[in-house]
Amino acid sequence: MTATCGPIFKLLRKNQGIVWTEDCQKAFDSIKEYLMEPLILIPPVEGRPLIMYLTVLEESMGCVLGQQDETGRKEHAIYYLSKKFTDCESRYSMLEKTCCALSLAAKCLRHYLINHTTWLISKIDPIKYIFEKAAITGRIARWQMLLSEYDIEYRTQKTIKDCDEPVFGEGPDPESKWGLIFDGAVNVNGSGIGAIIVTPKGAHIPFTARLQFDCTNNIAEYEACIISIEEAIDLRIKNIDIYGDSALVVNQIKGEWETRHAGLIPYRDYARRLLTFFNKVELHHIPRDENQMADALATLSSMYRVNRRNEVPTISIRCLERPAYVFAAEEVVDDKPWFHDIKMFLQKQEYPPGASNKDKKTLRRLSSSFFLNEEVLYKRNFDMVLLRCVDKHEADLLMHEIHEGSFGTHPNGHTMAKKMLRAGYYWLTMESDCYKLKVTQDKETFLLLSHKIGDFLAQAHKHETSLLESHKTRDFLASTLSRRLPCSNH
């Protein structure tokens, strides 16, 4: 919108003559057309990612923040903004303009982005540029500190279309073949329907609904079939195979069975009319045990009392292959280096599995102090010196080399850690590990010296005893010889 209104904005400058040109008239007509069909804004839904479309031009930027609906088929606008770059900002490179536009959008939309994961769609990836630049200038450092607070992931349009929440804005391939499974359930708690649309790639799109009127089991089956067919029509599917465990519904729609119940005739006729929207459709009857997923959805929707003010929360089903106490008894061995999560975030913008929003925020802030050069990770020191990050094995070799290597002086823990930093190496527990090594080496030295002193004292005692015995032997020999040898007086 800022680029569209550019000719009119020029007339608002000081000392500018007001001349209504053809460009101004085109801009005015474009504004009128836009106001005739304005965007309908909706509030965001918690638990779903936001999608930010960012457009950067030479003198302005535009941003639209949206979100997919519960089916993933449509996107709704939440907020949109535009801004004209200042004279200084307009002289940035296109990459820096994109970074500046993203920081401006994040600052204006903070109340939306702070509680949601945001997918960024733009021509250039500004996240990678900001967090992987070795030399940080003033504005890049400012953008880095601002964006580290938000969970923003760069995505391409193709990535979003191929994800588990597909967007069918243009419709699928007319030649692709889809599947549909439906089921209905009636019990003492109520009535519900469940359906699953299977994409050609094998992804499952579930649909559920609770029937708020009294009905029989056959009517519930018809309702499930008809609603699932309507959803397939909305997705613009042309070739589909429909599966259901109700032989009555499947065979009546196919015309193989006669419909005698008066209440089912309107359902049958309406279902047949809906099938005319497809180029090719086939109906199949399957056993009940092969329709477990749709049956589970229908049973759940019939038993769950829906609160119209709130949506039904997402239910995740995990597969546990072992008893719970086994997980508590076993120790998890992690052979990855301490900087693995930081490296993966800087390299691929990936978070560790199961990370909470607080963990993601902490990882983003921690990663701002690191720099990745190909496969080598560096820690950016406070004086902008890059320190190479090493794992536990390399750290042990470095500590032993500095402490007792060729030029080792057996320093204390603090001095050893300072030498590591001056040499250009870094790991998180550097100083504590150096202290532990020093204490261990001192204990080993003390034990070695104590053994040597003990051996020396034992040898000294043995030498003293042998010396005393030699003196006694000499005196005995002298007295014996003096008695036996004749004495001469002349």
Automatic annotation (TrEMBL):
Protein name: RNase H type-1 domain-containing protein
Domain RNase H type-1 residues, every copy: 174-303
UniProt keyword annotation of Transferase present: yes
GO molecular function: nucleic acid binding; RNA-directed DNA polymerase activity; RNA-DNA hybrid ribonuclease activity
Keywords: Endonuclease, Hydrolase, Nuclease, Nucleotidyltransferase, RNA-directed DNA polymerase, Transferase
Organism phylogeny: Eukaryota, Viridiplantae, Streptophyta, Embryophyta, Tracheophyta
